[in-house]
Amino acid sequence: MEQNNLIESKVREMLETERRVYPCRSNRASAMGHECLRYLVYCRTNWQDKKVPEITLQYIFEMGNVIEDMALARLKKAGFEVTQQQRDFADDKNGITGHIDGYVQVDGKHYPLEIKSMSGHIWPGINTVEDMKKSSHRWVRGYPSQLNLYLYLAGKEKGLFYLVNKQTGEGKDIWMAIDYDLAERDIKKAEAVNKHMADKTVPDRIPFDPDMCIGCDFEHICLKAGSRF
Ligand code: SF4
Q1: Ligand 1 surroundings by CB, under 6 angstroms
Q2: Could you tell me the residue range of the domain that residue 17 belongs to?
Q3: How many domains does the chain have?
Q4: Helices 180-199 and 143-154: crossing angle, nearest 10°?
Q5: Distance spanning both ends of the chain, measured CA to CA
Q6: Per-residue pLDDT tens for 130-175?
């Protein structure tokens, strides 16, 4: 018998099976822009305790993956060769790893490429790497560290973000020159994480910041029960 949402209930069941946390055995470049060292240590020592994404977030992750595929297909259709998709990087000394979305060829040169999809209300305000660094959204503030570490590990001077507006589908490319100060700051963070792991210690909490702490993947183990600290 026909029934509304018969199909969607099956889709939801499928997505439910994809809600999980993954082991974290390195300092991931995608996380190194996070501004709380305690969070970065928990990612390594307590990854099993990380909150499992809500089903609503799982829908968003899936949409992000679809948009990334669409963006790659779009770039290729527009005549840009994209190679080395999902190439892995590793810095064994500092335990940093990552994988890049690809290298895009522009005027005969290959540049590291990072694709990000973005809500329509954030989109108009992000036109430069500086805009990302100053964003009020903590995950956007972390984007430059991610691409910058790829540039550093790949020995490249320049790379680019290709952003896609989730509401309209529009794209924009934002170029980034390697920022050695930022790379040094993020490598120092990785060293600090490694030291805490070796010493079996956890850094202090940052002063309570609702933007950072409410909704943090580790707030349930970090914040004292019933209080903000
Ligand atoms: S709840 Fe706040 S202090 Fe604790 S790990 Fe998360 S961001 Fe850091």
Answers
A1: 36, 38-39, 42, 205-206, 212-213, 216, 218-219, 222-223
A2: 6-219
A3: 1
A4: 90
A5: 54
A6: 999 999 999 999 999 999 999 999 999 999 999 999 999 999 999 9
